[in-house]
Design goal:
The complex is a heterodimer of chains A (293) and B (400).
Chain A: E1 11-14, H1 19-31, E2 35-39, E3 47-48, E4 51-54, H2 57-64, E5 68-71, H3 78-87, E6 92-95, H4 102-113, E7 118-120, E8 126-129, E9 133-136, E10 145-152, H5 155-167, E11 173-178, H6 189-198, E12 204-210, H7 215-226, E13 232-237, H8 261-270, E14 274-275, H9 282-289
Parallel strand pairs in A: 1-2, 1-5, 2-4, 5-6, 6-7, 10-11, 10-12, 12-13, 13-14
Antiparallel strand pairs in A: 3-4, 8-9, 8-11
Chain B: H1 5-14, E1 22-25, H2 28-38, E2 44-48, E3 59-60, E4 71-74, H3 77-87, E5 91-93, E6 102-103, E7 107-111, E8 117-126, E9 131-137, H4 144-150, E10 155-160, H5 168-177, H6 185-201, E11 204-214, E12 220-222, E13 226-229, H7 238-241, H8 251-258, E14 262-265, E15 270-274, H9 277-289, E16 294-299, H10 306-317, E17 324-331, H11 336-350, E18 356-362, H12 365-375, E19 379-382, H13 385-399
The chains are: A alpha/beta (293), B alpha+beta (400).
Amino acid sequence: MSILVNKDTKVVCQGITGTQATFHIKRSLDYGTHVVSGVTPGKGGEMHLGLPVFNTVKEAKLETGANASVMFVPAPAVKAAVKEAIEAELDLVVCIAAGVPLRDMLEIKAMLKDSKTKLVGPNTPGIITPSEARLGIFPENIHHKGSVGIVSRSSTLTYEAVIETNRANNMGQSTVIGLGDDMMIGVDFIDTIDLFQKDEETKAIVLLGRLGGTFEEDAAEYCQKQNYKKPIIAYVAGDAMPFGHKMGYAGDVITQGRITAQDKKDAFARAGITVVNSINDIHQELLRLFPEK
Amino acid sequence: MNIHEYQAKKILSKYGISIPKGKIAYTPNEAKKVATSVSLRGPWMLKAQIQSGARAHGHFLEAKAGKKGGVRQIKSRRDIIKNAEQMLGSTLVTPQTGEKGKYVSRIYVEAFTKVKKFFYTGMVIDRMSATLTLLLVETAESDINEVVLHYPERILKIPLALDTPLCAEKIREALEFLKLNSRSARSLKKLINGMQKTFLECDASMIEINPVGVMRNGQLVALDAKISFDENALYRHKDIALLQDDCETDERELQAAKYKFTYCEFDGNIGCIVNGDGLAMAVMDELEDKGYAAACYLNVKGGVDKDKIASGIKIIMTNPKVEGILINILGGFLRCNLIAEGIIAAASEVGLNVPLVVRFEGTNQDEAKEILKHSKLPVIITDEMDEAADAVIKAIEESE
C-alpha cells in the first residue's frame, strides 16, 4: 500500500521530448515506474525512450490507459497542459515547473474545483512511492520502501526528511509528496494526511511546513478534529527569517508579518503533533516512537 | 516587481480610475515648469519617487534637504524650486527603507486635491482560497500593517471573480461599509472595476491605493498608488517589464536575478548557497540555533547551466561580509556535479579566501565530491546539514 501512486499507476509524461523530461523519465523507467506514453503536441506518432508519443493527453489515455500525468512543460504552458489533463479526466497530475504565473494558477485552481483530477504542485519534486513509482525529479537513490509518509511544502527539504527516516533504523518511506513551493498549490496537507492515516503501510507521518500562508494552521485544526491514531512529526522552516522578508510571496500582505514559524509550531503542538526544532531531529523522534523497527 | 507611484497611477488611470493631475520631474526647473502645467495655482504636492510606503513620515539623510519628509505640500512657485532642489539627489529614509534609505532621482508634481475623507483599498490574492480579493478599510492608516496586526475586524474582504465585475449588491455593501454617500456609488464601482481589470490584465500580484480621497462632490480619487507585478508573468508584458527601476534593487540581488536566482542579505557573516527557499530557511534556522547568522543566501533553484551557477557563486565569494561559505545542495532537478564545477570556475576567477564547506546529497553527489577532491581547493566536505553548519562555524572561529 501507499498513497496516490503505486506500481499499477499508468503514467503519461506531458512534454516528454524535452531535455529535462528525457533525463528524468529515463530514470523513472529504470526505477520501475509504469510509464506508458508521452505527449508532445506536433510529435504524435514518434517514439521516445521506447514509448509512443501522442499529440494530446486524451489520445494517450485512450491508447495506453494512462491515469496519471507527470508534466515537464515550461511554466507558460502549464495552464493549457493542466486543462488538457483535467479534460481527459486523469486521476492525478504532477506539475514540476516553477514560475507558473499567479493568474494562471487562479484559473487552474478554479478548473480543479469541478474536476476529479488531483494536482500535485506546481514547483514540486513530485511524488514517489519507493520501489514502485517515481513521478518527478527525486534523487531515487536515497529512497527506501518503508513505513513513514512524508509530505512537504519545501522541495529540497523533502530530501532532508527522507534521509532522516533512513537514519531512524532504516524505517524508510511509504510515499513521499512534495506539495510545491508556490503561493498556490494543488493538494495540501489536509488532503494527504487523510490518505496517509488510512494507508495500512504508513506508521508515522512527517510534515514539513514553512513560512507563508496558513497551510500548517489549517492542517493542525483539521487534525485536532479527526482524532487520528498515527503519530505525526512536524518541522517548520523560517524561525531565523526576519519579519516581512519576502520569500517570493508578494501577494501575502494579508498575513505578512503576522504569522511566524513559531505560531505554526504552536498550532501543531496544540493539535497533539510532535514538533521538532531542527530537521535533523526527526530521526530521533522516530526512534523514540519506534524503538524497534 | 514594484514600480513607482507615478507609473502606477498612470496605469490605473488607463483603467478608468481618477487620479490628480500630475507630471514627473528630474530637475528643479522641470518641477517648476510642470507645476504650472498641472495647475495654474497652488497648492501643489511634491512627492519623492522611491519605492517605499510612509514617505511622508520619512526624513532625508542630507542636511540640505531640510527637516520635512518626502511628500510636501507647496503653496508658491518659488518654493517648488527650493523644495525640489532639496529633495532631488538626496536620500530618503522611511520606516520601510532601512537606515540606508533610498536615493531620490525624480519627483512627482501633482495638483493638490481637496478631499473631505480618506479610505484604504487593496487587491491581493488570498492564497488559501485561491481567490482574487478586494480589501477595504474605512480609515486610512499610514501603515496598513498596523490595522492588519491590531484591528483585523476593520478590514472588509470581498472575493472577486476572474471573469465578471463585482455585482451591484456587493458594491452597495462596500459603500455602506465605507460610510460613503450614495453620490460616490458610481465612482466606487469604477474604482473597484478598474482595480480588478488592472490586476488581471496586467498580471499584478498586489495593488494598493492608500489613500483613496473622497471629494466634496462624492468623486473618488487615488491619492497614492502601489502596484506589484507577478515576475513570472512579465514575459507577456514587455511594456511593464521596462518600468523596472534597477536603482531600487541591491546590486548583488540584481545580478542574481539576471540568472534567475534569488539572493537576500542579512546581518550575519556566513554566505549560504542552497537550492530551495525552504532549505535556505532551514539552514538559517540551523545557524541561528548555534548562535550564528547568515550574511546572505543564494538560491540557485533548479539551475542547470554551469556558467550561471559559477556567476552566482561569485556573487557570494565577493561579498565582503562573508567570512565563511556553506553550500548545502540536495540535488533532484539540480545536479550536484554542476555546483562542484561552478565552485571551481568561480574560485579560479575571484579566488577563495574564506573557508568553504559543502554538503551534497542526491543527483550525481559522488561525482560532485570527486570533482572537488581533485580540485585541490581547501574545501571541507560533510554528509549532513547539521554537520556542515558545525564545520563552517568551526572553520570561521579557527581563522579568526
